Amino acid sequence: MTAHDLTLSPAAARRIRAIAEKEGKALMLRVAVEGGGCSGFQYQFDLVDHAEPEDLRVERDGSTALVDDVSLALLKGSEIDFVDELAGAEFRVRNPNAKSSCGCGVSFSI
After folding, report:
1. pLDDT of 95 above 90
2. CATH number assigned to the domain comprising residue 46
3. To which H or E segment does residue 102 belong?
4. pLDDT at residue number 100
5. Mean pLDDT of the chain
6. Selection from 101, 105, 100, 75 nearest residue 90 by Cα
């Protein structure tokens, strides 16, 4: 699999750029899938200033998301998005492989 199996939405790219500008340094969004949560797997989002050698890069409009090879297998065909709603603003993964997810949207099962 390649990083092309995962996309970054325009909204997510804008948000990553906005955070980096506010912090005054280049930042990337690390997205990982870990075991746990109420549905079996959960998404982990972190802002980092450097990539690990094994990271796959997903780029759009000058912004970068990073994902490890193991997580990419569970994210194939997904889109990393950013939503700003009345209930709050957050990064989200729109994952076509998820068979179910919990109410918070952070945990899912395959």
Report:
1. no
2. 2.60.300.12
3. none
4. 56
5. 85
6. 105
